[in-house]
Amino acid sequence: MEVQAQRFIDPQDSPPFKDRLYYGANLSLQFGTITFIDVSPLAGVMITDKFSAGLGATYQYFNDRRFIGGDQSIFGGRIFTRYNLFPNIFAHAEYESLNLDVFNRQSETFQREWVPGLFVGAGYFVPYGERGGANFKLLFNLLYDNLRSPYAEPFVIRVGFVL
């Protein structure tokens, strides 16, 4: 689950900086043979009525009980931009860098590495209440590397809810 706010600013208004800020977080939980926990807070600012930018941090815990030593912590950060094409449809771009254990085929050992990701795509925003809403995003990782990426494929779907 991703929790994230999105606001629309009237060009006639000049709201103070604090009123243009929004906050959110990703929260994913999966338990069983594979345990996955993701906590990723973010903060953004509406720069214009259509354009916003922000940054976020990521912590993920992954454990596959089918393998001895199949657990690891992944951490990193990201910066993102969003442009509202229409009232509910937006373009999204994001650069992410995650630190994780990557298998080195030459030494046959795992080594910690920073793995970059460059995501582009679009999304749909469904507002509810004064600031609430839901985001549905389809992103493509332009830097996807199937040997190093923590993602199973270059396409990533994110669904978020504003509380």
List the main descriptive attributes of the protein structure presented here.
elongated; 2% helix; Porin; 9-stranded antiparallel beta sheet; disordered N terminus; single chain; 9 strands; 163 residues; mainly beta; Outer membrane protein beta-barrel domain-containing protein
Main sheet specs? 9 strands, antiparallel
* Residue windows where pLDDT falls under 50 for at least 5 positions: 1-9
Helix content: under 10%
Strand order of the largest sheet: 1-2-3-4-5-6-7-8-9
Assign the structural class, choosing from mainly alpha, mainly beta, alpha/beta, alpha+beta, or little secondary structure: mainly beta
Give the overall form: elongated
CATH topology value: Porin
Number of helices: 1
Describe the structure.
There is one protein chain. The protein is mostly beta strands and about 160 residues long. The chain has one domain (about 1-160): Porin (Beta Barrel). About 0% of the residues lie in helices and about 65% in strands. It has one helix and nine strands, in the order βαββββββββ. The chain has one helix at about 15-20, and strands spanning about 1-5, 20-30, 35-45, 50-65, 70-85, 90-105, 110-130, 130-140, 155-160. Strands 1-2-3-4-5-6-7-8-9 form a nine-stranded antiparallel β-sheet. Strand 3 (about 35-45) and strand 4 form a beta hairpin. The radius of gyration is 18 Å and the shape is elongated. The relative contact order is 0.18. Residues about 1-10 have low confidence and may be disordered.
